[in-house]
Design brief:
Mean pLDDT: 96
Shape: globular
Order of helices and strands: HHHHHHHHHHHH
Distance between the termini: 57 Å
Number of strands: 0
Largest sheet: none
Radius of gyration: 17 Å
Bound molecules: protoporphyrin IX containing FE
């Protein structure tokens, strides 16, 4: 008898996006940011683009939760404690000033990312979860390294770095494990697993395009 065991979803996502992750990490903007070779203004510009991206991402996640009232898919992943929009507002006010909202605008690549998020149907759990995974798991992993560089190399203060502060979720390693355990228990069939992976790859590409425009 042959027992066919499907690859856990968390492994599928991590391994299936490894190339896309290293492409995003190695864009000239991200690698220069991480090594302290950009200006403060570059980091402010990134934070501004995140404001538009997370506004759309968090609206999409909330729509997804409303479409999953039984808590079977999106509601199990989209933890409101992860939401970044209030933190981004505080960071931008500290970085730019009280009129920050009038001072920032989305790049074309950001508009494309936002439009993609806005067009995800409420019940498309694989797409919503893929986008959620790419941003939030990245933020609670590599994002913590970036936060240290922003403080150390660029002199950002804690009131400008709320975006990277995930104390609301408690300790990161157990949270990350629990997030991955939840991914692994999602009731997705083969078609949904394939959709999850292709949406996650697309999410990385959308991020990389924003970084490429930020460098230009
Ligand atoms: C300078 C840029 C970056 C660095 C240094 C970096 C570093 C890392 C590291 C060290 C991990 C592994 C953490 C662990 O498992 O303990 C990680 C995971 C991750 N990163 Fe990044 N990263 C960067 C950029 C990005 C970007 C731009 C994104 C998304 C747009 C991203 C998304 C992710 C995701 C989704 C994971 C979780 C992988 C998994 O275990 O499933 N990262 N990153």
């Amino acid at each position: 008898m042959t027992i066919v065991t499907a690859t856990p979803i968390s492994t599928l996502l991590r391994d299936g996006t490894a190339t896309a992750h290293s492409q995003a990490e190695n864009t000239s903007f991200m690698s220069a940011l991480g090594s302290g070779n950009l200006t403060r203004q570059d980091a402010v510009n990134l934070t501004a683009q995140y404001y538009f991206i997370y506004t759309a991402l968090e609206q999409a996640a909330r729509r997804g939760c409303s479409a999953d009232p039984e808590g079977v898919t999106t509601s199990r992943i989209a933890d409101p404690r992860l939401e970044r929009v209030p933190a981004l507002g505080r960071d931008l006010a500290a970085m730019i000033g009280p009129d920050w909202r009038e001072q920032i605008s989305p790049l074309p690549a950001t508009r494309q990312y936002v439009a993609t998020l806005e067009h995800i149907p409420d019940a498309d759990a694989p797409a919503l979860i893929a986008h959620h995974y790419v941003r939030y798991l990245g933020d609670i992993a590599g994002g913590q390294v970036i936060a240290r560089v922003l403080a150390g190399h660029y002199g950002f203060t804690a009131d400008e770095l709320n975006f990277y502060d995930f104390s609301a979720i408690g300790k990161i390693p157990p949270y990350r494990k629990q997030y991955k355990d939840t991914l692994d228990s999602l009731p997705f069939d083969e078609v949904e697993r394939a959709s999850l992976l292709s949406n996650a790859r697309q999410a990385f590409t959308l991020n990389s395009r924003v970084f490429i425009e930020l460098a230009g």
